[in-house]
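Continuing from the previous page of notes. For each protein in this section, the sequence appears first, followed by its structure tokens. Read the first protein now.
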Amino acid sequence: MPLSRGLYVVKRYSPEKGVYHSAIADSGNLLGLLRPRQRFDHPYAVVIVELVSSGPQYQVLLDGLGDEWGEVNPITDQADAIARFRWVQEHASQLPYDPFLNNCEHFATFIATGRPKSPQVQAAVGWAGVFAFAALALSED
């Protein structure tokens, strides 16, 4: 899928984990991760920046965003997003991956908004609380 020049939060479903995986898509090399030749030889090239257990990882999709990335949301404040990305690059070793406190969704929302959030973790914690309350209520009978 060709994207207009800009930064985006993108998501794809990860069936092996049963969750959505979030990343940043860079169309137009705003983050400066593509070499000049890649930019000119592949005008639809998109760089996917994602957080994995070993730290930030970059993947170049030469023909644009693939079909597996189903949700695409433009980042409105791109200058600040670029600054936050640079900060993450400088401090990556101090920001270890954690599935509950620093996962791919935290990474993408931090770059996009400056506030790391993971609605999937929040929902899981909420459901865990409901089940714990129900189990406690049933055990008192």
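Done with the first. The second protein uses the same format. Note its length before scrolling.
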Amino acid sequence: MNKEEYRATYNAEDATPGWDAIDDALKKIYNDQEPKHWAAVPHYSIGGKDPIDGISFYETYHEDELYYHFVTYGFSHLYYDEKYLDDEFSNMGFELTFRLKPYQLDDNGPTWVFQLIQNIARYVFKSGKWFEPYHYMPAGGQIRTDSDTSLTGLAFLLDPELGEIDTPHGKVQFLQMFGITDEELASIKDTNSDAEALIKQHAINNPLLISDLDRKYIGNHNKGEMYKFNKDTKGTILERQTTYAIINDLKNNQSYKVNYISKQEFSIESRSFDGIQIFNEHPLLEEHEYSNTELIISTIANEPDLLSREIFQSLKLHYQGWRTDNYLNTEYDIVKMLSEGQGMLYRGPPSGAHVVELILKKHNIVFKALIRGKIENDKYKVLFLGKNYIVAKDFKVEKSEPSESNEKIETTSPDEANKTSFWNRLINKIKN
């Protein structure tokens, strides 16, 4: 937008181009729903203590459960000002959002969120620092004071529905806050990384990243004897049966029997492993814990090649490479299906379906979602022995020696000439 168009579109006296752009983005999701709004009084520019001009929040639902969606007005340029027309980013370049499950102590509404956001705003405007997707910060205590919540920090992500917009004053990202625990903060610091992996792990079962003050840290490992192992444990699979494996911990040369409780899935790539971990949340688990969702399209796509690539890449990112195209209808050419505008595009877990639904809506593709099958809300875990993994309800460990009555997997490495027969025997043992 050039200066002449800007002047013709907005009234210099009372126009709010930036504010209007935020409103327009929200209308695409909430239509004519009137949000509840909190305004800073007195205004920050005339001596008020709160930097953010206003915070709106919407009452909405995901899978029939109520939650609140907060959106700020004030990190970006909201009001008429011609000098911002050529800026790439509008002021700080973002506005904050927050999705929150109702909490039992918030009888008078979640007003504490307003103060939390204003505290963050004071830090931003005082320091001149800004946030980007996958940044994180400790809150210096519980994010909601006077509660027993375990959430003591915040991670940031691009809001799954609002994303990024262009305004007359530059780009604005809607950065969503997500509450995290002390243990999760420590795990990020230990790996010297950002919060991307943690966010993606939570998104598997919580695609909108709705913060829950009652959420407790589950952790990567199940409690019990498995704690004698960790991600630094190196070992060898000595024996592999349908319901258990016998492994050797090379550090102390001790053998252990790992029993599988209700095994569902496995993949064995190597008998040697470097690290043992158990996850309660992982892309491999979702299809065992939830009913499938089918997405059936009924509209011709304008750019089927582009849409196909976007869906594939988004699912690959969502499932972190573990379930790349498992749930797309690969029995039929996806591009051809999108060109013809009819057919079952996706059949798989609900979080992946939600990813595809958002893309289809963006491209104005009409579709129908159907729930197929019924899973009794079972919870599973995945045990990693290096790159090998087993999915089961639980695992029990006991000290053991390799069974003399069963064929053992050799404890010495087979030479290259014998590798093929070695793995054939292993695969046959697993099948039997």
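What the second structure shows: The chain has three domains: 3-203, 225-283+378-431, 291-372. The chain has ten helices and 20 strands. We return to this in next week's lecture.
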